[in-house]
Amino acid sequence: MRVGLFVTCLVNLMRPRIGFAALKLLEAAGCEVIVPRAQTCCGQPGYNSGDRGAALSLAKKLLAEFEDCEYVVAPSGSCAGMVRVHYPDLLRDDPVMLERVRRLCARTYELTDFLVSVAKLERVPGEFRGTVTYHDSCAGLRELGVKTQPRALLAKVAGLTLREMEEAEGCCGFGGTFAVKFGEISAHIADRKCDHVAASGADAVVLGDLGCMLNIEGRLRRRGDEKTKVLHVAEVLAGMTEG
Fold first, then answer.
1. Same fold, 2-117 and 127-238
2. Tell me: the pLDDT tens digits for 112-166?
3. CA–CA distance, 115 with 73 (Å, rounded to integer)
4. Of 94, 95, 146, 239, which one's alpha carbon is 20 to 30 angstroms from that of 158?
5. Domain residue ranges of the chain, discontinuous segments joined by +
6. pTM of the predicted structure, to 2 decimals
7. Ramachandran sector of residue 76 (left: φ over 0; alpha: ψ -120 to 50; beta: rest)
């Protein structure tokens, strides 16, 4: 399978190890992985802020970069959701482009969904000696139905024990620009999530979106928790949790 890896701008800028972990997992699944060098953003920040023009330009750019790939995979439910759910809305007034983007949407997956549903990955290279709890990021869960897929893969990690927290499906308070525009509300929501993480007693909280990771980790550290690790599911599955 010829798979285009959409690294996402946030991963590229803030935690590129996630992109390398995703690459390792896709290759372990037997995929030929293409990483377009000029890729940038899916357009989600502009779209969520009402700047449809900027979002449309980025959508067309992504389409041109990934259209020849058999599949498009992103280690982010929100970015994959942007493509699959919102690109058709952006391009609704251009029938030719709309048909092209619909074909792309049908081939676009969040990483764990692809590994389970399409690649049928049987073994993962990673090991993790300890307990983790899993946070279901809003976009992946509600837009793409990503729920059982990451848990099925984590069950294959040697040494790992999954301990579910209360309200695993509850928002972490990030929501992109929501965390900036409504800081106090965001902090309250994040505190609730951190309370559940702490109550689980897990060594690490694992999730599939870097935006949520940054929000949860930032709140944990401000609360004085320097011990609990905050890891992307790809890092755990690939055995790339250090450094």
1. yes
2. 999 999 999 999 999 999 999 999 999 999 999 999 999 999 999 999 999 999 9
3. 9
4. 146
5. 2-117, 127-238
6. 0.96
7. beta
Sequence-distant (6+) residues with CB within 8 A of 87 are: 59, 63, 101, 104, 105
The CATH class of 2-117 is alpha beta
Strands 2-5 and 204-207: unpaired
3-state secondary structure of 212: helix
163 backbone dihedrals φ, ψ, rounded to 5°: -125, 110
Question: d(Cα 151, Cα 117) in Å, to the nearest integer?
Answer: 13
Sheet containing strand 71-74, edge to edge, reads 32-34, 2-5, 71-74, 108-110
The CA distance from 210 to 222, in Å, is 18
**Could you tell me which of 169, 174, 228 has the C-alpha nearest to residue 199?**
228
Strand, coil or helix: 200: helix
Quick one: fold of 127-238?
Answer: Rossmann fold (3.40.50)
Reduced DSSP (H G I as helix, E B as strand, rest coil) percent helix, strand, coil of the chain, to 5 = 50, 15, 35
